[in-house]
# Entry
Amino acid sequence: MNTAYLTEDRPPVGAPTTAASAPRAALSSLDALESEAIHIIREVVAEFERPALLFSGGKDSVLMLHLATKAFWPAKVPFPVLHVDTGHNFPEVLEFRDRTVERLGLCLVVGSVQEFIDRGELSERADGTRNPLQTVPLLDAISRHRFDAVFGGGRRDEDKARAKERILSLRDEFGQWDPRNQRPELWNLYNGRHTVGQHVRAFPISNWTELDVWRYIEREGIELPGLYYAHEREVFRRDGMWRAVGEVSQPRDSEEVLTRTVRYRTVGDMSCTGAVESAAATAHDVVIEVAASTLTERGATRADDRISEAAMEDRKKDGYF
Amino acid sequence: MTTTDFQTATLFRFATAGSVDDGKSTLVGRLLHDSKSILADQLEAVTRTSAERGFGGSASGRGQGQQIDLALLTDGLRAEREQGITIDVAYRYFATEKRSFILADCPGHVQYTKNTVTGASTADAVVVLIDARKGVLEQTRRHLAVARLLRVPHIVAAVNKIDLVKFSEAVFRDVEEQLLRAAAELGLPDVRVVPVSALEGDNVVELSARTPWYTGPALLEVLETLPAVDELETELEAFRFPVQSVIRPQGALAPGLDPEAFRDYRGYAGQLASGVVRVGDSVTVLGSAAGTQITTSVAGIDFAGTSLPQASAPQSVVLRLSDDIDISRGDLLVETGTFAAASQDLHASLCWLSPKPLCEGAKVLIKHGSRTVQGLVRSITGRLDLASFSEGPAADLGLNDIGTVQIRLASALPVEDYERHRRTGAFLVIDPVDGNTLAAGIANSVPDGEGEPRGG
# Structure
């Protein structure tokens, strides 16, 4: 067999950090999480007919895609990526999305909130936020493309509703999550059986924390959209967060526009995602910042999760990610 | 938040189990709070809610002056808050310098043995809460029995509310003795007992001056130092590798790779279930086609463009073999000479997790490793009485029952005795009609000389 493609001279990525020949105690926590996620991704691809990966260009979805490339190497990622475009995306994130899809030779499916609004099937909310509107185009794309499994980058440390969701989460015809009727999930045996009309949301990085994600991004050298790192931007203060000045995010008269060095901890809908003041210019800087942070990432930067204590629970029951 | 050294920190999974009102939520809240895993916005929300509900305790303890209900830190869904109950396992995350922890927080109601089984199936340890005033209850015995059945390597018993018995050593020793007696009856290998006050913080993260008669470590230190399952077993167990899929990149090669180099590439993707594999090792393929066993050797271990000299459980890798053999998803690769034979007859304990009862003659699906086959429940041979740890006769199994059964499989599966091979001895029982998971299955060894011929 031709083994010319193997690169034995560099240290194995994701392999144990101790000498390869010596038996060792256990994988590092990052290696253990990586291995678990890859196992889940492979199980879903093997057991479902039409999986897809939710890909927004946000760090969790970029991480998911990176894990998928590692899971199937040297074959390419064997499923399309699905983006629910709110129409309020940061332009640099869309550019990053397209470049990534091109680089990995993937097929991109886009569900557009704007098209649903234009057709009168969705209406703008009073607060202008479009994140909660993503559910309808998402379910439409799932049924139109007959996806039976959809990978998401959701993590259990993000929210108390997510803390209770299974790694393979069964959804009904309406995409609804029923927290009282979940299958027990035992060992590393994942039961993905579903009936016609049902689909499964798969969350391979359920057990990662925000800090794990950044440690892994640093270790693997994963490229992210630039707005995750410190940059100067015109911003104004609203709800205790820095909001970017943009087409869909305009300051009111009372809100002063300032130039600040900021970065984003999440990149969602421009109209509800806030930036934090930060000088963290590299993944390593961000790891240090996150480790020292006193706020959760959603608490710090997501207006839509502040609507009520059960905001995420309500959205999930309605078919949200 | 404490900075964890991710180069050396390992992962440790534990489950909490307790009875109603023994302070489990408060203990979990205390672990998260005192290990500085609670961020300001979460604490603020909890402080606000505590005030709204008129919480009068001094939960933060140690004179910090805050009045917060630590149990709210683990408060879950609205449906749960409305009913004042916990309906499901919740997963929590915290880290210290030595370890990252995954905590499966299991509700304590009697009817929710199901949740303890779920949490314990992946746990390196179970933390069992015991109210110092009440001692070992039937519920405690159930939790210990589940931990034993699932072979959780360590039990950590937190004897809680020690402040309410005036930090009495005599009370603690009495509870400790009850516990050790129950553990001995069950054959639990490793039980640690720690006196704690979750409400006041004694011996949870830091040792308390109020229990000078206790010379062991605080609860968190116990969790930081116990060896995890893979640390205990990887070097002892033989290599097992359920094939998840075949990687043949021809026509769908990742961009940037040279098609010439991969013209003949064929690899088998999977996660090591146990043991270690090295390049050159002799391995036997247990085929899903009736009873086939073919021996070959490992030509290479690939992981995302890197060639590894060896891999160990629970790493996910791609194996290349020296011979072209017809291998597919569902086959099991094992270290040559360490596996007897696949069998169509399965003797097992089942933790029944469904409200739909199991009766003899039921047709089910059995999911084992990367294979799912049909099975017929031939007989229900007993039900475990968790209070006495003895088995009595049974005609059916209901929700939360643990019983023993004999199942005939439509084709042979390489199921091993769970006592010796945790990951290849575990299986799921699935409802063929609606696809729901009905039971957690634990394979037992077949008693010598018992009727059925083995092999497919």
